[in-house]
Structure formats: C-alpha cells, structure tokens
C-alpha cells in the first residue's frame, strides 16, 4: 500500500495523491501548472489540424468534413467534461486506467490501460513518420531528392524520449512553447487569408460546388477522420499525479484545451477548403502548409512549415509522456511486472517505462503504413471513449455529488455520457466502412489479452492494495 501525501496548499479532492513507485520509494514530481496541462492536451492533438483531418474531405467532401469536425467536437467536449470531473477527483498517474481500477474493476482497468498505451504509442509512431515526410518535403523544395527519412524518424523519437527521461517540467515546458507557436501560425494564416487586400484569396462557393458528392453516407464515412481534429485531448489525465493542484489545474487545462482545438479546427477547415479543391484537399499530405504556399507569401510558407514540424514534435512528445505514465501505473499496481513501476531517483520520471516503449514505437514507425498506424491509434482511442460513459455513470452512482469532494462537477449529467456513447457507436460504423478487418482484428486482440490477464496475470495483483483513494469503499468492491 502506498503512502498518501497532501498538498502543502490546501486539501482539495485532487490533492490527495499516491506516492510514485515503490522500488526506490521515489514519487513523481508535482511541478506542473494549468498551462502545462493545456500544452499536453493541445500539443498531442494540434498535429491533427496540420494533417490527417483532410482525409475526411476525401471520404465525403468539404461539407462532410465540416459536419464531422463539429460532431467530433461534441464527442470530445463530452470527453473533456467527463474527464475533468473524474480526473480532478481520482488524480493519479494512469488517468483513465486508474479511474477504471477504482470505479469499474480490474479487468476493465487492464484493458483501458492497454487502450491508452496503444493509442499514444501508435500516434507517436505516426508523428515520427510524418516528421520524416516533412524533412523529405523540405529537402525536395530545396533541390535535394530522394533523402532517406528513416534517420530522422529515429532521431525524433530518441530525442523526445531523452527529453521525457530527463524530467516532466522541461518536457511540457518545451511542449508549451512549440504548441503555442503552432496554434499562433494557424491564426496568422487565417487572418492573412481573410484580410488580404485586393482580390480575395478564399473561394468557397466555387471550390465546394456540388455540396456532398457522396451524400449523407459520405458524412458518416468522414467521421472516421473527423476524430483526428481532437484525438488525444484526454491525455491531460496522465499528468494528474504531477500537477501542483490537480483539482484546479486539470479541469482548467483540459477545458481550455478543447476550446482551443474547436477554434483551431474550424479555422483550419475554413482556410483550407477556401483555397483548395476538395478533390485535392482530400488526399493532401500537409494541407495547412499547402494552403500557405497558395497564398504566395514566403513568410507564411516558412511560418506554417515550422508550425507543421513543431505540431508533429509536440504531439510525439506528449504521446511519449502519456504512454509511459499509463504503462508505469500498471506496473506499479502489478498489472504488469513491477519492474516498470520504478521512478528515476534524480529526474523523478518513470524512466523504465519510457525506455521500454521506444523500440515498440520505432518498429511501427519504420515498418507500418501511415494509414494503418493512424487507424490503430483511432480505434484504441475509440474503445477508451466507449468506456467513459459507463465510468462516469458508475462514478456518480457509487459516490454521489454530496458524498465526496470534487474539483469539478460537469453539468447536465447523464446527457454528455449518453451523447458520447451514441457518437461512439456512429464512429464505429464509420470506421467499419473503411477498416472493418482491422477493427475486428483489434477486438480479437483485446479479447485474447483479457483472457491472459484474467487467467494468468491477475494472480500477481495485491487485491487489498488496489483502492488508494481516501473515500468509503462502495458495496462489493
């Protein structure tokens, strides 16, 4: 059983946190503030505005991508609201995994932990692939042809892993700077396109003539990549054990993050769909950079080129942070070998988990197609979002609002939970239309590892020490 420490400031629900790892008796450092939480959530996601979302245009046209953007925005707003309440109360490393351990049960917790690790590790690999592609694109523009992308993929992952190894404060401060730059670049491009004197740059009416080329089925299919606008905002929960005041910082950073992404997503769609025909936009590799090139401004080209690289690095950086925290938390609870539950005695980071996940990310980054890696990440995230409505409903039922203190109470319960569940069902069908085989394969994979956990690994878990929150235990726990 781990010891609990309380904040030096005041006793808020999220300030009562378990210590870090037991092997050396060291805990994770509580050094982060709300801005770091914002940088973690937005930093992971903002690359989706720079690339990937536009495949929704190819699925159903520009209007379909806009509808998918807003419906996915509703889905992730529900995610952010639910996460803000539960995480500000169950404030420990592992995020949704730790929530599932306390609220639902060990088998669900094990699966949710794997969803998190695979979602972030696959997204990290996708970002590394994209970074290599960007280096190749820049080299082609400057006259260097046929550059080998693999060294840049390896170097990007290794550098960011080293940064995470050295400390969470430096890691997320770095994310804060480059994420703010990437978001500012989107706003500057929008203002330049809208306020350009003389002949207008944007031509939505001419470029989007024809409305929905594939009808409403195209809108449904577009939901698959509509998630890419926001995928990863739920990663703010992984920093719960490393913030100075979880009850305030987590809700503020998460909700400010989803607001930022809603603005960035809408501005991105508006600019890109007004500068490029939907047929080209639907298959563009770097749509925001292409939009900057179409403005004819060298300054905007440089700004959006740097912004694209920064968004890619910020996303990969945040993914390493989040995947390692989930893996570390599972090791600390003996859901995985306890060796992974160690904290570095100097840097106070889960260094073994960080190192262990590097070769897995490199394997997928160097050997798997980008669309398959992206879909693996999306599906793992979608499975996690499906768990969240059950999680919040059981949380409210077992610990009503007046029974424990919460850092944040999301409104209109259970409407956000039911809305999230309905949108997840729609998105499953959308993914099945294009990647049905991969969806079935992933479900089979998670069933197999669930059986492994139930019949083998669970015997090593100390059941009596699983409940670490200072609440009354619900009946039957």
UniProtKB/TrEMBL annotation:
Q: Which InterPro entries match?
A: AA-permease/SLC12A_dom (IPR004841), APC_superfamily (IPR050367)
Coiled coil location: none
Amino acid permease/ SLC12A domain location is 46-451
Transmembrane ranges? 37-56, 62-82, 103-123, 168-194, 214-233, 254-278, 298-320, 354-370, 376-395, 415-433, 439-456
> Can you say what this protein is called?
APC family permease
Principal location: membrane
Topology class, membrane: Multi-pass membrane protein
* Record region (Disordered): 1-21
| Entry keyword set | Membrane, Transmembrane, Transmembrane helix
Q: Cellular location of this protein?
A: Membrane
